[in-house]
């Protein structure tokens, strides 16, 4: 019964019948596969042998590709990338990046030669000097909490180079001043008076003043083409049709939009920009505190150079921290450009002459410390000044400095303080590094006569610990807490 039983084949009967009925098809497939040559795999030794050192890469790759067309697309792309990279390297396309990296690795220490202002090196301690063979003592007006805070910030974060200047918004007298370089804390005045740093986006202040004097308003629209922080020739061409993006002057200032200010500068032209720069202190010296002048070019060859100057996207505009402080005070207070007052008073000192020699100063030099140079009348009209303050406040409320003030002051303190400012950053060369600016003012809303002006400059070398806007926010925070608390305690 079970003699004819055999184990069942795993293959289906249909497949068995298919192979039996049409063996010639299966044989044809097998023959075609056998006729096709198998591709030879390229071994590493063969590639090395095919690319001799003496032959150019293009010939070696051509010989290799002739023997194996299967890898033709990959090898062609590799050869193209290699040729383009070599050409770009030879044409110095990467020279900017490489020079930046080399300068960052081999940058000299951020030490600047001191100006001949040695009698002011003990700030905030009293100084002694001789005037007409009479010994006199200099007394500074300084806010001890602000001075302690400024020194504490520099000691904690240890920037590569930094200058912090704080003055009273209305009297102009210094409240705090500190400076640091790669060797540690330094007398502030030699660093603060040096106009060797690029003004960066602080040059937009000049363009804004010129625009406001030419009937522009903070809400007036300007064409905005391309990215905010770049500047190309196609971004400063006036659009010919009405379908183009626009931005208001206040938002262009607050967010530091370069193309919008490039177009605005070409509308205003260089004579207007140069006259405005001279009016607010550029190309001008003021002894004894400002023996060197900040520089603003008088002319530009083409529209693109005008756009660079009007937006600050150039190193051709220089600025000192002391000059930046005068801008903040002028805009935040009464529109009068004046140098800050460093010395509160000078009193004769009686007694025997000191053992060490003291410098001899003239009466005019000393009077310049007590009563610094000032313009006879406001350089900014009341309307221009108020509109400029709107631009400054927009920078703190929603612009490039907003996150630093919100993070440090908070909503409660910001509601009690009116703060405005301008940021700017650009790579400099003396010393090499990223120049980081913040200038601004702050005053109490309930007591507008209480206020301060600030100018903070940093040069970041290999790292960026704290931005200048955040340093300013920390100083305003400590000052504001004390002032707001004193006003709340008043009957």
CATH superfamily of the domain at 141-343 and 374-491: DD-peptidase/beta-lactamase superfamily
Give the strand tally: 14
What is the CATH architecture term of the domain at 141-343 and 374-491?
A: 3-Layer(aba) Sandwich
- Count of DSSP H/I helices: 18
Strand count, sense and closure of the main sheet?
6 strands, antiparallel
What characteristic shape results from the CA principal axes?
globular
Work out the radius of gyration.
35 Å
Strand arrangement within the widest β-sheet reads 5-4-3-14-13-12
How does this model look, in words?
It is a single chain. It contains 18 helices and 14 strands. With 491 residues, it is an alpha+beta fold. The chain has a domain at 141-343 and 374-491: 3-Layer(aba) Sandwich (Beta-lactamase). The strands form 4 sheets. A 6-stranded antiparallel beta sheet has the order 5-4-3-14-13-12, with helices on both faces. It has a 4-stranded mixed beta sheet with strand order 10-2-1-11. The protein has a two-stranded antiparallel ribbon with strand order 6-9. α9 (203-213) crosses α11 (258-268). The chain is globular, with a radius of gyration of 35 Å. It starts with 12 loop residues before the first helix and ends with a helix. Mean pLDDT is 79; it is low at 1-7, 9-36, 41-65, 87-109 and 111-116.
